[in-house]
Amino acid sequence: MMRLSTAAIIVACLTLICLMFAVAPARAAGPPAFIKLDLEKGSDPGQVSVVMQIFVLLTVLSLAPAILIMLTSFTRITIVLSLLRQALGSQQLPPNQIIIGLSLFLTFFIMAPVWQKANQEALQPYLERRIDSAEAFRAAMEPIRKFMVRQTREKDLALMIEVAKFPRPKNMDAVPNHILIPAFVISELKTAFQIGFLLYLPFLIIDMVVASVLLSMGMMMLPPVMVSLPFKLMIFVLADGWYLIVGSLVKGFTG
């Protein structure tokens, strides 16, 4: 049986709820209910039909995973935690749900100041009809762009500018989003793998030492992973590894 993703379930539930609310008042009045998509020009340009608002909401929900992954710290955190699990050799511990959940909450913690600024400068003025949708989008992207610029390497940004054959910008404000975003993602991937390499080194040394000891004792049939895993877990716990790794990840974005 086909498995539905979480995003698809959320979209289906929201669609069903919206349709129920749209049909329920008409049934109470007596005549049959119909869903009408009204695209006529209204007296107030700021007013949008309920159905159009539903479509916009579903569109945003469909793009939310990509926005969360590509424009935030989620990519680096998830890769580092996944590489840490592989370095420990603990198979599926911690499970994927724990890694994704921890990455999400750390992303919310790191991105909270950025989202608060976007809410104050873009969303709230738009809801109060002080600015239009285009100005709200530019105001919302401004704090997000500043966050991405701080984490983007100049080399990666220059690569994307060269590939796009875009004229050399005078400053970062002149760099368009379609160039800044892939440069930011490439920089995050490189940083994440660099951190993962540094995490692998101590655990690799432990595996090599355990394998050498077992070979010298003639225990060639005993898998070295079974012996090295308790030592790696003990050293990781004694060094307070979660505190060090999570602290380094958060400080790497907020420092």
Describe this entry's structure for a reader.
- The protein is mainly α and about 260 residues long.
- About 75% of the residues lie in helices and about 0% in strands.
- The protein is built from nine helices and no strands.
- Helix 7 packs across helix 8.
- The longest helix is centred in the C-terminal third of the chain and has 40 residues, at about 175-215.
- It is elongated.
- The two termini are about 45 Å apart.
- The relative contact order is 0.09.
Topology overview:
Blueprint: H1 6-29, H2 50-70, H3 74-88, H4 96-127, H5 133-151, H6 154-164, H7 177-216, H8 224-238, H9 241-254
Helix pairs in contact: 1-2, 3-4, 3-7, 4-5, 5-7, 6-7, 7-8
Task: Describe the structure concisely for a colleague.
The protein is an all-alpha fold and 255 residues long. The chain is built from 9 helices and no strands.
